[in-house]
Amino acid sequence: MNNETQTHFPKDFLWGGAIAASQVEGAALEDGRHWSTADALPYGVFKDVVIPPPEDYLKKDGIDFYHRYKEDIALFAEMGFKVFRLSLSWSRIFPNGDENEPNPLGLAYYDDLINEIRSHGMEVMVTIVHFDIPLNLALEYGGWSNPKLIDFYLHFAKTLYERYQDQVKYWITFNEINVTLEAPFNGAGIQGTKDTVDKSTLYQAIHHQFVASAKAIKLGHEINPNFMIGCMVANSPYYPLTSNPDDVMEAMKRDRETLFFADVHVRGKYSAYMKRFFKENDIKINITAEDLQIMQENPVDYISFSYYMSYCATANPEKNNQELGNVKTTVRNPYLEISDWGWQIDPKGLRYALNQFYDRYQKPLFIVENGLGAVDELVEDGQGSYTVNDDYRIKYLEDHLKQVAEAIEDGVELLGYTSWGPIDLVSNTIAEMRKRYGFIYVDRHNDGTGSLKRYKKKSFNWYKNVIATNGESL
Ligand code: BGP
After folding, report:
1. Cβ of residue 427 lying under 6 Å from some atom of ligand 1
2. Cystine design at 97: which of 134, 265, 268, 463 (Cβ 3.0–4.6 Å)?
3. Carries keyword Hydrolase (predicted)?
C-alpha cells in the first residue's frame, strides 16, 4: 500500500476472477448441449440471422475450458483466488429450456467442475444466467417477453440450488440485467435491437426478469438460508459534461437507466421516476399485485456490478453522437484516455460508483467484473517459454484497485473483487479473441487457429502478489 492510502482490505476479502460459460467452454453441442442465444451473437442481432451459427463461430470451441478446466483452475489457485465466479450454461442442463428433466451429462460436467474449484478451497459464485438463454426459448417463446420464461428459469434455478446447495454460497440471478435495455437479444432473447423492439415489450420482459429474480431469491433462501443471492448491473456512472444544469439533469436521467434496476432489486418496487417515464412514453406493462408483493418481500442480499468505464452526459443532441463502449452512444469525456476499443478509462469512477451505490442502498457490494481488454503480444520469456509484458493491464488494475481501497476507507462495505476474464476468453458481443483480459494468455486467434496452450502473462505474478498481501502491495 502506498503512503497516500492507509486502507486495508478486510481480512476475509474475496479476491478472484470471473468468466461466463458461453465465452470459455466451447463444446457447443457436446454431451447433449444445444444452442443458446449467446451462440447466435453477433449473428442473431447485428447481421442477418444465421441459426445455427456458422462453422467458424469462435464461441463454438471457446478456449476449450470444457476439457481443460482442471489446468485453468489450478492456475487460478496458484494465483491464490479466494472465489471464482462462473455461469452454468442453461442449454447444457436444459437444452431447449422447456424440458422437465435435466440433461444428466450437463449436470455431471458441472458436478466435476464445482468439485474441482472447491478442492482448491475457493468459494464458488454462480451467475444463473449470463446472456445465454436456450435458443429455443428465444425463437419459440419470444424470450423474456413471454411470462412462461419465469417458470422455466425457476425450474433451472431450483435444479442448481438443490444440487449445489452445499458447495455454492454466492448466486447472481442475471448478469448485467440492465443490458437488456441496450441489447434486447443479448439480455432477454428478444429478436431485434433497442431501436426496433417496442418499448412496452422491452419493459414487460424486464419486469418478467424482476419477478423471476425475486422468486429465485425466495426459493434459494427456502432451500438454504445461508445463500447470498444478489443482482448484477453494468455500472458505468454518468458525469455531466459541463456544469450547465441541463447537462446535470441529463446525467441524472441517464444514471437512472442503470439505478432503476438496482432500485427495484433493493426496494422491491418501481420508483416514482420510472412511473413518470412509463406514463410519458406511453409504456404499458402488466404488473400484478402478486408480482409487487413477491418483489417487495424478497430483496437482494447484496448488489454486484461490473465496472469498466464511466460516461459523460450532455443535453446537446449534436454532441451526443459518439460511440463509446459496445452499446452506448454518448459524448467523450475530455479528461479521460480510452482503451483500444474506445472504452473510457476512469479508476476514480469506480470509487465514485461504489460510493454512489453504498450511499443509496446501504447493502453489501461486490465488484464482479473489471478489467482491460487489450491486444496482447506473445514474446519469448528468456526461459524457453513465452509471456506477455502487459504493464498496461497491471497499471489499469492497480489504478482501479487503489480506488477500491479508497472506497473501503470511505466506508463502503465491499465483499470482494473478481476481475473479468482472468484467462483470455472470447469477447461477448463482438465474439473476438483479439480483445484479451487475462492474466493467462490463450493461444487462440480470431481466425480460429492456435494451439490453445496457456501462458502466464506478467500480470499473473502481479495479481498473485496483490492477493497474497491482501492488497498491501498496491
Ligand atoms: C460484460 C459482460 C461480459 C464480458 C465483458 C467484457 O458486459 O458481462 O460477458 O464480455 O462485458 O465485454 P467484451 O467481451 O465485449 O469486451
Report:
1. yes
2. 134
3. yes
DSSP tag of 418: E
Q: What is the Å distance from ligand 1's center to 428 Cα?
A: 5
Q: Which domains does the chain have, with CATH numbers?
A: 14-468 (3.20.20.80)
Task: For residue 248, give the H/E element and its range.
Answer: helix 245-267
How many CA atoms within 13 Å lie on the side-chain side of 356? 20
Each residue's pLDDT expressed in tens, for the chain with a length of 474 residues? 444 545 689 999 999 999 999 999 999 999 999 989 988 876 554 444 555 566 667 888 999 999 999 999 999 999 999 999 999 999 999 999 999 999 999 999 999 999 999 999 999 999 999 999 999 999 899 999 999 999 999 999 999 999 999 999 999 999 999 999 988 998 999 988 888 999 999 999 999 999 999 999 999 999 999 999 999 999 999 999 999 999 999 999 999 999 999 999 999 999 999 999 999 999 999 999 999 999 999 999 999 999 999 999 999 877 777 766 655 668 899 999 999 888 999 999 999 999 999 999 999 999 999 999 999 999 999 999 999 999 999 999 999 999 999 999 999 999 999 999 999 999 987 788 999 999 999 999 998 899 999 999 999 999 999 999 999 999
| Cα 388 from Cα 290, distance rounded (Å) | 54
Q: Name the β-bridge partners of 454.
A: 442
- The reported pTM is 0.96
- HSE, side-chain direction, 13 A CA sphere, residue 216: 33
Say if ligand 1 is within 6 A of residue 419 CB. Answer: no
Phi, psi of 124 (to 5 degrees): -110, 130
Closest C-alpha to 444, from 6, 68, 45: 68
